[in-house]
Amino acid sequence: MAALDLHLMASVFGILGTIFAFLVYLAPLPTFYRIFKTKSVQGFQSIPYSVALFSAMLMLYYGFLKTNALILILVNSIGCFIETVYLVMYMIYAPPKVRIFTAKLLVLFNVLAYGLILGGTSQIPNASRRLTVVGYINVVFNVSVFAAPLSIMRLVIKTKSVEYMSFPLSLCLTLLAVVWFFYGLLIKDLFIAAPNILGFAFGIAQMIMFLVYKEKKKAVLPECSLNDQIPNTYRVATVENDDISTAGETNTQTQLEAGDKEEFRS
């Protein structure tokens, strides 16, 4: 009877996890509607979506190796599709340098790294050991999914604005972490349960940050520039030089006008 209750509870948390995961995947829709409407990625970054896609691909592989893992396969198949759509739209409207950076990121993670993991683990003859190895790899990258919004948190601290932080996404990630933690605990799979402890902590931190900075004035950011990796020194110097040149031309013109007045008086 107790075993039946545990199985029922695991099924309930699995269904809840599927619902919350779907909500997490749909949470960025307002962001991408804004990108579509303005035809610009503005200050939004592609890193969280590329990392999320990679994590979904790894968890999908883990689900195929694990027995009775239909929920994992379903959730992460949907996740792979939705994240791919987001990234395609992002690259359509991103500036050329940002588009190249995102493409390199996808090749590095989703082609090279995933291919190495797939090829390397497929050489492990023992199925149980292969599942364990893939499970450990999933723990690392599931944590990175929750840690990926740290770049957004850095932007919030820097600009004192939550304009580029999605509160619905942070809330859904927090609830998702709680649900998947209990699901992993009930089916006795620590590879599912463990990463969600850190996921819960990151989610709470993001929501606290949103409450702290939500009343602040919105910051106007320039076009996305590879997460501040490309310096704007040249642009700033050019503006300063233009200002100096303009000031110099204004002073010269003033002096000439003053000289003309003196000549007229004479």
How would you describe this structure to a colleague?
By secondary structure, the protein is mainly α. About 80% of the residues lie in helices and about 0% in strands. The protein is globular. The relative contact order is 0.12.
How big is the Rg? 26 Å
* Largest sheet composition: none
Globally, the shape reads globular
Portion in strands: under 5%
Unreliable residue stretches:
219-266
The ordered H/E elements are HHHHHHHHHHH
State the total count of DSSP E strands.
Answer: 0
User: Alpha-carbon distance between the termini?
Assistant: 113 Å
* Structural category: mainly alpha
Mean pLDDT, as a whole number?
77
Instruction: State the helical fraction.
Output: over 70%
Number of helices: 11
Keywords for this entry:
11 helices, disordered C terminus, mainly alpha, 266 residues, globular
Overview in brief:
By secondary structure, the chain is an all-alpha fold. It has helices spanning 2-26, 29-38, 47-65, 70-93, 96-121, 127-147, 150-159, 167-186, 190-193, 195-213, 233-265.
Element layout with pairings:
Layout: H1 2-26, H2 29-38, H3 47-65, H4 70-93, H5 96-121, H6 127-147, H7 150-159, H8 167-186, H9 190-193, H10 195-213, H11 233-265
Helix pairs in contact: 1-4, 1-8, 3-4, 3-5, 3-6, 4-5, 6-10, 7-10, 8-10
